Amino acid sequence: MPWIKVLHIATLLCWCASLLYLPAMLLAGARSRGASSFDLPVPIILRFVFTHIATPFALLAIMSGTLLFIVGQIAMGWLVLKLAAVSGMVLCHVLCGGLIVRLERERHRFLLPASGLIAVTSAVLMLTVLVLVLSKPFV
Q: Record's family (predicted)?
């Protein structure tokens, strides 16, 4: 069981990092609208990070977390709240994918506020998960 926990924490850290990175890159891509300091255009980099880094880590984090509470037979009140917060993080992940598609199609309307809102919401949800896991209320 310890290796499952290590896998879960490692993949969760990578997913959370990419979930904060994607909105920041979306903001940069929406602002630049032309010349980029990168060799590749921002939408191509974003799509790569989303499909090859963020999504696999998200899936591994969710699968290892599910395995953790199945193997450990954890069914407490705090877990329901944690799963609700993780569901919110999944929604933010999906919304990032939608914003990447909008950026690729040159639809910049509402891209800046949406990216900022996703970044703030993701950070709050990550903090909520951290507090719930460390404090384990309702035990």
A: Belongs to the HemJ family.
Res 32: pLDDT: 67
Euclidean distance between CA atoms 20 and 9, whole angstroms: 16
Long-range Cβ contact pairs of 94-102 (< 8 A, separation 24 or more):
96/19, 96/22, 96/23, 96/26, 96/50, 96/54, 97/50, 99/23, 99/26, 100/22, 100/26, 100/43, 100/46, 100/47, 100/50
Distance from C-alpha of 111 to C-alpha of 23, rounded to nearest angstrom: 10
Q: What is the pLDDT of residue 15?
A: 96
User: Nearest-CA neighbor of 14 among 58, 47, 52?
Assistant: 58
Whole-angstrom CA distances from 89 to 94, 104, 127 are 9, 23, 11
Inter-residue contact 71 to 1 (CB < 8 Å)? yes
* Averaged pLDDT for residues 72-94: 89
Tell me the average pLDDT of the chain: 88
